[in-house]
Specification:
The complex is a heterodimer of chains A (about 110) and B (about 120). Chain A is mainly β. Helix content of chain A is about 0%, strand content about 50%. Chain B starts with a strand and ends with a strand. Classes of the chains: A mainly beta (about 110), B mainly beta (about 120).
Chain lengths: ~110, ~120
């Protein structure tokens, strides 16, 4: 069965500092991996996805994530945090089958301190 | 950019009442999903729907839940007899389906409050 863990339910960074949100997955097959962002009182927006092409994936809003099979990780980074990055971030995994059920991690709440 | 539309954005209902949550997926998408998020908790899979039938459902999706696509555009989630613990944000999602791992487009959600 697939699962996702996200280390740190809450992360605080200063504006302009590096953002690092951690995600580790468990999957019996080569996974498809996603990061979604949820702003307060809004839905889920796809930030980026890994689908077995390049291991370094670039997404929207300056975020990127690197797939490391040996570490079963897919950490999300952004070089310089902006106040507008404050949100809940969810890592997710799917097997990429026809029905493609996505399993979400517990989420990490990112705060950006001015 | 195409959107998944959910209505209503917020619904309050009394325990034991039936509710129908509505979704309009993106028109050329083939796979449809419902997820829920209890306040402060993770997003949980409820059900996937393809070719007018349920393709997979979770343990949460028991007999009180049902889904249908009555007219080829709307995709609904019905909860027959609501319980307090059904209070949550319910998200509809759709995906094209032609490419594995192509990711979902989510709606903005319906916040269901059972009192």
């Amino acid at each position: 069965a697939q699962s996702v863990t996200q280390l740190g339910s809450h992360v605080s960074v200063s504006e302009g500092a590096l953002v690092l949100l951690r995600c580790n997955y468990s999957s019996s097959v080569p996974p498809y991996l996603f990061w979604y962002v949820q702003y307060p009182n809004q839905g889920l927006q796809l930030l980026l996805k890994y689908t077995s092409a390049a291991t370094l994936v670039k997404g929207i809003n300056g975020f990127e994530a690197e797939f490391k099979k040996s570490e079963t990780s897919f950490h999300l980074t952004k070089p310089s945090a902006h106040m507008s990055d404050a949100a809940e971030y969810f890592c997710a995994v799917s097997e990429g089958t026809s029905y493609d059920k996505v399993i979400f991690g517990p989420g990490t709440s990112l705060s950006v301190i001015p | 950019e195409p959107e998944v539309t959910q209505t209503p954005s917020h619904q309050v209902t009394q325990m034991g009442q039936e509710v129908i949550l509505r979704c309009v997926p993106i028109s050329n998408h083939l796979y449809f999903y419902w997820y829920r998020q209890i306040l402060g908790q993770k997003v949980e899979f409820l059900v996937s729907f393809y070719n007018n039938e349920i393709s997979e459902k979770s343990e949460i999706f028991d007999d009180q839940f049902s889904v249908e696509r009555p007219d080829g555009s709307n995709f609904t989630l019905k909860i027959r007899s609501t319980k307090l613990e059904d209070s949550a944000m319910y998200f509809c999602a759709s995906r094209p389906g032609q490419i594995a791992g192509d990711g979902y487009t989510f709606g903005s959600g319906t916040r269901l409050t059972v009192v």
